[in-house]
Design a protein that fits this description.
This protein is α+β, with helices and mostly antiparallel strands. It has one domain: Pleckstrin-homology domain (PH domain)/Phosphotyrosine-binding domain (PTB) (PH-domain like, Roll), CATH 2.30.29. It is about 15% helix and about 40% strand. The strands form two sheets. It has a five-stranded antiparallel β-sheet. A hairpin with a 4-residue loop joins strand 2 and strand 3. The longest helix is centred in the C-terminal third of the chain and has 15 residues. This is Cytoplasmic protein.
Amino acid sequence: MIDFNNKGFFKLKQNNEYAERVSALLLEGEQVVDAYKSMRDGVVFTNKRIIAVNVQGITGSKKDFTSLPYKNIVAYSVETSGTFDLDSELEIYFSSLGKVKFEFTGKTSIVEISRLISKHLLTRFN
């Protein structure tokens, strides 16, 4: 599993390459909402979970796929981009895992991702 405390994700840019890479892992009825890529690593948001992809080794043929179900989220924080600071951040707190932080640059559907997480959080309590 990715060590989110010590592993710094490079800034993620919207890119569908990782949506294709995780397609074999998706369950029936699970759909990709958005996908992002850094230099080597990536993250995919589906309608059921977040899949973080850590590319390992010199050749990049070894990959670690970490599944982060929305049902295990206890809180989250979103920092949107501004006029001069175009980066946005998403911090998610998972029960028994702790904080996971993703940094995005460029065009990001951070509001859509926030709504998706909120939907899963709030429907648990209704």
